[in-house]
Amino acid sequence: MAGRRCSSSVLLLILWSLSVFIVVSSQETTPTGGHHEVAADNPQTTTETEQQTAEQPAVEEREWKATEVEKATLGDAETDKQATSAPGSVTPSSVPRPKDDFQEELVIRPLHSGDIYASFQFRTLWETDFMKGNKVSHYRLFPKSLGQVISKFSVRELHISFTQGYWRTMQWGQPFLPSPPGAELWVWFQDTVTDVDGMWKELTNVLSGIFCASLNFIDSTNTVQPSASFKPLGIGNVTDHRFLRYATLPREIVCTENLTPWKKLLPCGSKAGLAILLKSEKLFHSSFHSQAVHIRPVCQDQDCKTTSWELRQTLNVIFDLHTSGQGKREWSLFKMFSRTLTEACPLASSSKVYIDITDDPQGDQFELTPATPLLSQAVVMGDRRTFSVYDLTQQITFGTMRSLNLLIRWKSSEGHMLRPLLHAERYVAGYGLQTGEIHTLMYNNHPYRSFPVLLLDSVPWYLRLYIHTLTVTSKGKENTPSYIHYQPSKDRVRPHLLEMLVQLPPNSVTEVTVQFERALLKWTEYTPDPNHGFYVGSSVISSLVPSIVAMDTNSSQERPLFSNFFPCKEESSYFVRIYTEPLLVNLPTPDFSMPYNVICLTCTVVAVGYGSLYNLLTRSFQIEEPSPGLAKRIANIIRKMRGVPPL
Amino acid sequence: MAYLDNNTNTLCSFSVFVCFSERRRGQLAALSIAAVVIIVGVPLWWRTTETYRAWLPVSQINELAKLQLQLSTDVEVVFARGTVTPEQQKKVPLTQTQDDEHTVDEDTVLRYRYETRYRTATVMEEDALNQLTAAEADLSLHTLSESPCGSLVVYVIPESSSLLPQDVEVYIGQRRTALLRIGAQMRVGRTIEQLLAHLEPRLKQVLQVMSFSHTDITAALSDRVRLSPDNRESKADSMRAFKSSPGYEITFSLLNPDPKSHRLHWDIEGAVQTYIQPLITKLAPVANFSIDSQTLYYAMLGVNPRFDGSRNAYTLNTDSLAHVINPVEARLGSNAASSNPVLNFLLYVPDVHRSPLYIQDYKKQEVPSNAFHSPRWGGIMVYNVNSFYGPDAVFPVDINIDMAKVMGVFLAQLRLLLGVQPSSSPPGFLVEPCGSTGLADWELDRLMWSRSVENIATAATTITSLAQLLDQIGNIVINDNIAQQVSSAVTSLQLAVAELEAGNLGFALQYSKEAILASERAFFDPSLLHLLYFPDDQKFAIYIPLFLPMCVPILLSLLKIVSEARQKRREKQAKKD
Predict the structure, then answer these.
(1) Chain B CB within 8 Å of residue A141 CB
(2) Most buried among A151, A341, A448, B189, using CB within 10 Å?
(3) pLDDT tens across B320-357, in order?
(4) Any chain B CB within 8 A of the CB of A80?
(5) Chain B partners within 8 Å of A37 (Cβ)
(6) Could you count the other beta carbons within 10 Å of the beta carbon of residue B558?
(7) Cα distances (angstroms) measured from residue B233 to each of A519, A586, B236, B239
(8) ipTM given for this complex
């Protein structure tokens, strides 16, 4: 009986191992086998797709036929019209004033680090109204695709940026238009929209098609509605944040496929004007690249009775010419973009190149050729700056060479940059894969003024913030925020949103820390490369920073005394938005063959338990003759040999 | 010793008894476990792992796979004074029905039914027919009574009538009326049967022109029916027009490759209002249209035109036209806001150095309209502006584009692309040119007939192939939403077929559009993809570690029970013997 039991269990074991073997081998062969089977399984799908794409060959072998116009089809409508409008001719007097306007501009700023900051801005202004229900359908300079998006989705304001690299505020100063690494999108919808979330979902999908970006990954788990940080930049006083959506994709990688559709939105494309400099192989060979589209309604004139729509396309790039130029500090347009300027875009009403020469008032730092007599002063980011201006609409700018190749040669590498008054950084602390701590450091470098900043943090749900551990300290003392807006996350539904208004004391570092726990994701929720880590988008810090111009209370400058007693001078403070680094957080990552192992292991345990139970239930038990012990058996053999009856 | 023996014997018999009952219990346990596994376990496993498949109206879908369409139209034949004598008038049959059946292929049968009603003209109609010209008569007849969509009225007028010119026998107006002049040999003394027999071929021709014709309908079915090579021509015609769709986007693009020299102004807004909008309004029952326009600068054509010294002009050959639009198309941009097909109309103004530019046809002749169209894509017109300024002009020049000329071409192209066929009328026919709307009522009817048939055929094909697909791949989840879409598509299809049979063209088109929308929505629903690629062998690979250890002991003990039972029976038999 025991032997049989033993043999049956051996049989079971063999079967079991055999089954495992079958399972493993079948698992290995399935990718190809399964595929074949599927392919063979649904010929209907293939034929159906053929049917669906039946137009395709028709398109390829297009028949080209000359159009025969029957005069009859025109009928009387033509004669009607003929009477009213003169046939096409050169009629300068009757040309209507175009309702749209295009400007282009390039600002180049040599940085103290030896890098070059080039910032392109293209601005299309259109006197039309997308808001009042009337259908806008005839486009001239404004791109049709964006116009259709605005009118279909009732967008009031749209800001989208694609950035590759991180802006180093401490080295480069403030950018003209800040943007976080990756993609950022924020949209204000009109207050007539009822289903904002549905619109937002559809809008992101359409935009991802327009810009060839993965904006379709924006969903409710990375969308927030900031209550204070993102106010409308255009006219209009609706500030109900129900109509605002904000999302970032820090993982997004920006490359030529995003640049091409962006260039296509320009009226001149990349065929004329400043846009011919935008060659992708040079633009993406840089330390920082950021392109953006901003659409907003603006006032048409001073009275602001009617609105215009402004489309601003910007592109900021930082070239690291110092390292690539073999230690020689000089640059030219050709070196940066491998092109020179030959003409302005003929559609542009203004086309200018600005070179920031503030750091070089006497011309002893660097030398700029060709020289220009045009100078312009402007207060940018609270700082009074001087620019050399090249007006591309004037033929004289291009000189006898018919091309403009700006060249700057440094004479000395001295000089220092004013430290930016506000900057921030962020990192993750802690060890292990269970908990961690996010540290956000905000630096106020102003020597004597404190100012408030708005900090916005949007943390994905899989980092569970312990909001009770939130501490804000500056100069070793606790700094209580005057406003906190916190929206806790819901797993797989929405992220954490933390907004606070913090007063930064002068010349200080304010540290915001919050602890978090890392959640375990479902195995389908991991990215294809889970050990790379998960990105957490940049924090956004918005603030009104006291201007450097106003900081200067020592009235040694040659200015009238009556003009500078009170520190509140022209533009005493200016708006700054800075973004911290995105975080890369490791989450506990399972072994992805685990589900199958678990299935096998559980099944084994179940089978073992079940097997013994089954045996207990079905086996019959009987008393066996106790077999004599070994000593007794040997003794019996000996007795048998001796002919003595056994024991 | 004997005692001992006895004792062991009883012990043994006791143990045999115990042994037997134990064994019996074990067998029962094995049987009950097997029963539990089979009765509870297997159905439970089956229920919990099966994919959800909502009920689909399969039998109705299979009925639809065999498309049997009947197209009915009402024709009213009105005899004016002087065409029939009073005796004849009494014998005029009230109605006559004519059926015409065509088997297109084994799955598609078309039946045309013409219901002809005969009557004599009323006094008012007589007055209307006494107008001076045919066009006026047409208008006043229209004001008298408006015939419904899809029906026709044919007025038979005497030979002496001055409405039509001498050589014209049939006049087709802008609405749904036609005038038919009775032949000279039919004057007097013939019976009514002879008269009707004489009218018959003419009436048929009128119907072919003003209502559906068999070629149109088979062309509309071209997706479904494989056409024989001999009617290639009609296939080319049917491929020119856009496929039926609930909406179209019309985009006018002004291509200005040389904004440095030409500053172009086109009053597209006014032109659309004047020329395109009436046609679009008229076509509203067929589809929704949205119109927009854009200006593209620095848009180049894909080919370099050849310079023709004899004409001092640049020319584009027909065979190079195919390469013209590819670089332009990248800049046209699709419509971001909808997924309807886009009809592109491009107005190309050649740059200074390449003008004038003319398009040549196959015979090396200049095309008078200087325009061409591409099937199911749109049209391009080349607009030369070099004659508007002298050689000493200061660039950039402001140029106003003559929209009447441009829109004439685009309107003709639009009609072609929408499938409004310029049907070739038989000799002796006079077709009134359509007026300001750009489309006569009967042309709209023709379009609606073929669009309804096309919609029904497409929706039926979509639904049947979806049903086949779902039938073949058992892994696909069919949720309630899809089932509902499918049933609504089937219902709309049945309604459309029924309305077509009843002759209510407007309703038939409406239902066929609903059917096509619902069927497409069901077919392209993303939820159908979820479990598509979950092959069966992988599924069983996962189950084997559980199933094998569980089933093997059950099977073995069942086998053992069966073999023991058989042995026992054999023993019993042996004992009996």
Answers:
(1) yes
(2) A341
(3) 877 887 778 878 877 777 778 888 898 988 888 887 88
(4) yes
(5) 535-537
(6) 15
(7) 66, 66, 5, 10
(8) 0.77
